[in-house]
Write a structure and sequence with these properties.
Layout lengths: L11 E2 L5 E8 L1 H10 L12 E3 L3 H8 L9 E8 H10 E3 L10 H10 L2 E9 L5 E11 L1 H11 E6 L1 H12 L3 H6 L5 E2 L11
Parallel strand pairs: 5-6
Antiparallel strand pairs: 1-9, 2-4, 3-7, 4-8, 6-7
Length: 198
């Protein structure tokens, strides 16, 4: 699909009939045991807001290919679509949008009560430059964060090696080789999300 035909706000992800893969990056102290055990360790703070990203390249932009401090371990977290879809249904945009919210007070009230929030940030290309369309970030707090860690998570893989190999190939000028290692991300069938501006 050419850039001209990609909707401005669309969820693109690696997904199956029952799961969707999202990305996060952590310090090795959290990321390594999570990948080893296939679940988040007790040290993972379940009360804190956690942001999940269906876009691998947006995660690479955020963590610098796994080189930023406390983001050296890149995880691919496979979660249930049921949980992800519930979070989307209950989410609120992280900023006020006049076309979506009745007024600023209504948005603030929705944001206060929502267990999840959404940001749409520019998607990234292989060189991590911004693209003309947006990618979803989903923030989970309270009950949604706990459910993500302890109920929705199906599998956790350490993909740090893949991230670093893609970066190495790009540095060597092998863009085709780097592109071949990217996960396949296709439009996610979330349906219209008017409350999230999509």
């Amino acid at each position: 699909m050419s850039d001209d035909h990609v909707p401005n706000r669309q969820i693109r992800a690696a997904h199956s009939d029952t799961t969707i893969t999202v990305y996060q990056a952590y310090s090795p102290a959290l990321g390594v045991p999570a990948a080893r055990d296939g679940r988040f360790p007790p040290a993972w703070k379940r009360e804190r807001m956690t942001w999940i990203k269906p876009s691998f390249l947006w995660m690479m932009y955020r963590c610098g290919w796994g080189t930023k401090v406390d983001q050296e371990t890149v995880l691919a977290v496979e979660i249930t679509r049921e949980g992800f879809d519930r979070a989307l249904r209950e989410a609120c945009l992280s900023h006020y949008v006049p076309d979506v919210h009745a007024d600023r007070a209504a948005w603030q009230e929705a944001l206060r009560s929502a267990p999840a929030r959404v940001q749409w940030d520019p998607e990234r290309d292989l060189r991590l430059n911004p693209l003309p369309y947006r990618s979803l970030q989903l923030g989970l707090s309270g009950p949604a964060s706990r459910a993500y860690a302890d109920e929705w998570t199906v599998a956790i893989r350490d993909v740090t090696g893949t991230a670093r190999e893609i970066r190495r190939l790009l540095g060597a000028g092998d863009e085709a080789g780097a592109r071949a290692l990217l996960p396949t991300e296709t439009p996610y069938p979330a349906g219209p999300l008017p409350h999230l501006g999509a």
